[in-house]
Every structure is written in structure tokens, then in C-alpha cells.
């Protein structure tokens, strides 16, 4: 189908948004009769969008979730093994530093060489790592490789100070701040106006992503998204963070936050206000860091208010694009009881997969275990490829059809 050119053609952002209304992913009635089981009994699969999203994943999800012996028996063993012993594939990256409207900076890492070997309409996957994470992390690198093997263009969004991203103002990022992700998605869309945009986020990156989807709601320019090991309810996550062995993760993450802060501490000298810079600089827990710096930076009176109002569990009901959430029932950092199952079941755009094991950012299972890609990677790509296949009709971009419908 040749594209018809009209002087009154709508802006690309509008066309991407309008596509939601003409998508063959028309929302099904979540009250329809239950489908025959297409997944293995070891997996929990629920959601208002299950009737549309589960069938394409049945080959992967019909197999039992078999955690790797010795490693997968314990959530902490799996979490730690994945963090320290999972392979980190070599990927040549090209960095682009993006200056934001408030004069802050984030770093976008693109796979080098993609501009010359991928067509401009190739689908784009934007990756959001977890707290203090970046393009150097193993789970990010494995996802990059899998998506790139499917001819997708990939870019890692390194938040302020993460992945050696520059910090140019006395502000980092938070679970509530959506300004940077909004600008990044708009920037990527402007660079590749003919491509469909997708995003996947892990842990805090997943929480930020789901909050963004809710904020944009019907106006979201992403075609679909994936959230992995999302803490969802940050109040519950904070409660569990201070229990037993979880203190090890709390101290490790606070140490990473202190390290990032120390590199840019001069920006915060004499900042005044309600900041407690010594507390942030010497934080022994993530909560201490958030009390001294984060909650003040983003206008919250208390840390508990920050956690409550930043929780993406309250955002699920407002998501209007296909969203796959993958969680592990034994995740020590993203507690199972924080998952907003009721809202996921009620939303025809959402599907949730809960594995019996997996730890946090672990999922040491599947054919690539124990040192290769997480069990989740092929499931994520099958979901995204299914959505992408439905975003094209007989090889023509659905975007073109939208232009014609609007005129």
C-alpha cells in the first residue's frame, strides 16, 4: 500500500496515539468465559488481557518452570548468583547524552552499527534498568542481544548518575519522577518516526515505566511494554527490605547510591532547604538516602509519602496499551503480596506471569541456565514480537492506515 501524502496529515505522535483506537488489539471483555489452560500449572498467569496475549506465548509457558538445581532452591542464592556469576555479553555501544529541559542529563546507549544495518522502521526497544543499574548490567546485556538478534533496534536509558551518566544539576532520579522517561521516549520517537516504540523495565525501572504508562494513558506513544520484578507497592517493599537477609541488599544498594552521590557531591554543597546531605552521603540504608535527598528533591514531606505516592500498584488501572508483567513469587525485594492482582485482572490490556521461583533479577532457569540469559528473555521477546506483528498489516505500517483514516 502506497502512503498517501496530505498536507493536513497529523503529527506522528498523534498518529501513534490514534493507532490505539484502530489496533486489532481491541479490548476484549474480561468477563468472558475462561479459556482452556495454555500454560503449565507451575506458573500463575492472570490478567484481563490473557485471552489475547497468552496464546502466542503458549509454547514457552506450556513447559514447567524448572529452577536450576542448587541455585534455584533459595531466593537469595538465585539473586546473588545471577548478580555475580551470570555472564556479561560483550556489546559495542554508542553513547548519546541527552540534555533535559531542566538542564539535567541522561545517557542513551545504542547498539553500535545499527544505523547502517537496520532499516529506519525497525521496531525499537527502550530498556530501563533497576535502581543504580545501567547498560553494564548482565540482564540488560542479554536482553539487548536477544532483541538485536530479532532485528530490533535497542537503546538503554541510563538514568542520571547511573551507568556513568553525567549529572549536571543537583537532582538525581526517583520512582515518582517521569520527566526524564517522557523526554527520552519523545526523543527516540522523533529520531525514528517510522518505527514502533516499545519499552521494558526491571525493578525500579519497571515501577517508573508503569507509572509513565498510567500518566500517558490513552496518549501513550509506546506500542507495548514489559515490567519485570517490579516492586509495585513501595511501602510493602520497604517493610520487607529491613527484614532478615534482605538487609544485605539494602546495604549493597545504599552503598551504590553513596558511590554515585560522592562523584557529584559538589553539586549539592550549600543546597539548603530541607535536604540532609550528610545523611545521604553516609546512608546505611536506601531509606536513609531517600530521607536525606530523594524525597526532598521531589517535594514529599516524608519518605512514607514518597513511597506511597510513587507506587505503580495504583497505576495499573490506567494503563491503556498492552502490558506484560513478570514477577517471581519468592522475590525478596519485590514482594508477591504487593502485586496488584485485582487491578491486573480487571484491565483488558494487562497480563501477569508469576514464576514459583526466580529471586530478584534472577530467573536462573531455562536452556541458558545457569550462566546465560534469564528465563524471562524469550518470553519477553515473544510477547513484543506478537504485538509488533499485529501493528503491521500485510507488511504495511498500520501508521499509514491511520493517516488515511484521519484525513
TrEMBL record:
Keywords, alphabetical: Hydrolase, Serine esterase
A Gene Ontology molecular function term of the record: monoacylglycerol lipase activity
Transferase found in the keyword field: no
Superkingdom of origin organism: Eukaryota
Active site: 203 (charge relay system), 331 (charge relay system), 360 (charge relay system)
PANTHER family hit by this protein: ABHYDROLASE DOMAIN-CONTAINING PROTEIN, ESTERASE_LIPASE_THIOESTERASE FAMILY PROTEIN
Stated name of the protein: AB hydrolase-1 domain-containing protein
UniProt source species: Brassica carinata (Ethiopian mustard)
